[in-house]
Amino acid sequence: MTRLRITHAPFYRSACTIPQRSLWILGAALLSLVPGILFYGMPAFAVAAVSVGSAMAWEHLFSRLTGRRNTVTDYNAALIGLLLAMMLPAGAPWWLVITGTFVAVVLGKMIFGGMGGNPFCPAALGVAVLLVSWGDYLDFDLAYRQMAENFEMMEPLGLVKYFGAAMAENYHISDLLMGRQAGGMGTVCGAGLLAGGILLMARGIIHWAISLSFLAGVAVTALCFQWAAPQTYAGPIFHLLTGYTLFGAFFLATEDSSSPVNTAAMILYGLGGGVLTVLIRNRGLYVDGVIFAVLIMNLASPLLDRIRPKALGAQEVK
Amino acid sequence: MINNLFFGYAALRLNYTGLEDNRPEPVALSLPGEVSLLAGCTPDQALLVAKKKTLLKKGEDVRTGQRLRLFETEDVFLLSTVTGTVSGVGLYTGPLGRKLVRVNIVPGKEEVTDDGLFDTDNLDPASAHKFISQLPGRMRLLPLQGDLPPINELVVCAGEKDISVVSNQYALKHDGRRVADGIELLKRVSGVKKVTLAVPGDLAPCAGGMGARVLSLSRQYPAASPRLIAKEILGRAVPAAKPLAREGLAFISTETAAALGRIAQREAGVFDKTLSLVLKNGTSILVKVRIGTPISHILSLFNQSLVEGDYLIGGGPLTGVAIHDPDYTISPYMDGILVCAGEDILENGDYGCINCGKCVRVCPARVPVNLLVRHLTRGDYLKASDHFNLDSCLECGLCTYACVSKIPILQRIKLGKMKLRAMKQEVIDGGRAQ
After folding, report:
1. How many helices and strands in chain B, by DSSP H and E?
2. Quick one: angle between helices A263-283 and A156-163, nearest 10?
3. Contact, B35 vs B107, CB < 8 A?
4. Residue of A nearest to B4 (CA)
5. Whole-model pTM?
6. CB neighbours of B116 closer than 8 A, spacing ≥ 6?
């Protein structure tokens, strides 16, 4: 008798798997990282390579040490490494990158049991630790002072923060979209980030509710600030296209396990992140607030996810 | 069997297969050399079968539609689907390890229908469902009387159980008159006055003049799920743990109604079942086959050979059951057969939930699947039921279809429900022992 295979229904499955999902996000991220590498050259490529390699190495090492199944082949560690590299300046020192990936992969993900258990977005956590520990190395003005370019090689957000809203006029929208600004090597090319984000939203890999509400939160808050004090605060378009805004909206805030899953909760989460971003930028200590805004909203995510529709025929448990 | 659509949001919407106007008539298949009829049995009854002490003996001649009594009790009987000679009565292990009694009958040359089949005047409302459950069709009628509240509405459903099958739509479209006759007969037997005919939206023209209110169903799976239909009819959701029969609703499929219509009009072909056969290369054929035919007989007629590691699925791709034995027979409620190569079916993954939320967005019952599955994996069934809406699940399989981690969510949900039932039964039995 022929031995037939027995499994449980359903036998029809969607083709989307974890490795495939990671690869799609990697591909979308490359849309804005490749222009960055072309622009900054070899130092940028070196940082990206070290970051991806070390992230995978940390995951492999930690799996070996703890005797767990090796999950390097799901490309999630590579993705975390790539996202972390994108937020660093080109030419960041190797030890900084390796420390960042250690925090992101091991402390941000693996100790919580791997994918799905992490309460924070791993890449954001890695950058946050670097930012508060070695802030000078992530100061883009210092990092790029050797580079003589034909445009303002100063970080736009910093300029506006310290010299007033008039500085925003140095930057045309096309400059910001095409990456002619100082910033993280993969986060300056607005056009590439938008393309990647739209691609991921169309594929259903990230949810539009988080990304769009994050951007809406940034725009509305920036508009309020500008309306209150137009000399001091730059407008919404400037805030949307500078710093980590687009990158945060499409790649950080949408990280699966640290973001809510219900639509209403996702919209609140995104809005909260956007509002906090501009608050930190305009009134806070740091030049850019995306990283901390995302981490704070990660904390609120489980609480927000309690806002969920009533299930069919659900009864109150007395 | 793997859906690979580029646009992720579209990939999560699954529609029922419709009846295209150019669909050819069902292929009527010849009778096999032997049919097998299966009935559930208690352990004591299984012992009787093993000792060859059943009332029905090998060598007896039976007629189509004749009630075959196996044991002294009146409750367990089989309706013979062919005219012929009994060639064996024995035990059989069905899918999911169920213990069954199997009666084999070798069909004779002529077909004679037993008069008892058409004797509908003496159908007792309390036991009619046992008779009706052996006619072709999917949804079961609960006892029309008994300890349940009286049925005040009968729902005749032309919607399907799964996305690949069309049996009920076919019955409505091509046997409309018989469906109407069947509804009349049911009204007479049960005394129910209110009948609702639930039909997929595009078949609404076929549903007129049947003496029933027409409820239009969406084409999107699982709109034809009884609980969702009940919500449409009652205007409110039925509490999750409450059986629909307690709300006075009884469900029956149009295919069963058409079979009852044949009985009312004393026509032949009562035990012919239409089912969708999906071959290995993906082509779908509608066939008409006698209940009790071994699946292997059908496969041989279509030159389908099974090799090691293939799948044979009874039902549809989302809620069907994998069958271990090619000689397993066509049951009254098997609306489809899928033959699949092993590599066409995605295996379960070994990841936990990554909280992507696709299951939550696709769930028709709005169950927080991402939280539920964590508790089910831990075996925390009481908590899953009390706080994470385990009972609300319609078991449609969409969450598992969408799952990125490829977790067998539906299996865990069913396991959880079964364990909870067993726990409750233990409490009841313990109370009795006191």
Report:
1. 14, 17
2. 50
3. yes
4. A15
5. 0.92
6. B65, B66, B67
What is the three-class DSSP state of B153?
strand
Partner-chain contact B348 A7, CB within 8 Å:
yes
Sole residue written with tokens 């031995």: A3
CA trace torsion B80, B81, B85, B86 (10° rounding): -50
CB distance A256 to A118 below 8 Å:
no
A14/B12 Cβ within 8 A: yes
Pick from B27, B25, B23: nearest CA to B302: B27
Asked whether the beta carbons of residue B310 and residue A4 sit closer than 8 angstroms, the reply is yes
pLDDT in tens, B202-255: 888 888 888 789 999 999 989 999 999 999 999 999 998 888 888 888 899 999
Indicate the DSSP class of residue A249.
Answer: I
Q: Report pLDDT digits (tens) over B332-349.
A: 999 999 999 989 999 898
Burial per residue of A213-252, b for 16 or more beta-carbon CB atoms within 10 angstroms, e otherwise: bbbbbbbebbbebbeeeeeebbbbebbbbbbbbbbbbbbb
String of DSSP letters for B237-255 = PPPTTS-GGGGTEEEEEHH
Nearest-angstrom CA–CA distance, A240 and A219: 7
- How far apart CA B59 and CA B65 sit, in angstroms, is 18
Number of residues that make up chain A: 318
Please tell me the distance from the alpha carbon of residue A188 to that of residue A184, in angstroms, as a whole number: 6
User: Phi and psi dihedrals of B106, rounded to 5?
Assistant: -95, 115
The token pair at B399 is 């969450």
Q: Where are the beta strands (DSSP E) in B8-125?
A: 27-28, 35-40, 61-62, 67-69, 77-79, 84-93, 99-107
Per-residue confidence (pLDDT) for residue B130, from 0 to 100: 83
- The distance of B269 to chain A (nearest Cα, Å) reads 32
What CA–CA distance (Å, rounded) separates A69 from A54? 19
B97-109 pLDDT, tens digit per residue, is: 888 999 999 999 8
Number of neighbours of residue B283 by Cβ within 10 angstroms: 9
> Between vectors from CA A141 to CA A244 and to CA A294, what angle results, nearest 5°?
20
What per-residue confidence (pLDDT) applies to B397? Answer: 94
Asked if residues A287 and A155 have their Cβ atoms less than 8 Å apart, the reply is yes
In terms of Cβ atoms closer than 10 Å to its own Cβ (0-12, 13-18, 19+), residue B323 is: buried
CB-based contact A21:B404 (threshold 8 Å): yes
- Return the SS3 of B220: strand
**Residue of A14, A206, A207 best to disrupt the B interface, most CBs of B under 10 A:** A14
Q: Which residues on B lie below 8 Å from A203 (Cβ)?
A: 6-8
Instruction: Count the Cβ atoms, other than its own, within 10 Å of residue B300.
Output: 13
Classified as helix, coil or strand, B68 is strand
Beta carbons of A8 and B408 less than 8 Å apart: yes
Q: Are B62 and B9 in contact (CB under 8 A)?
A: no
Q: Which tokens in the block code for residue A318? A: 């007395």
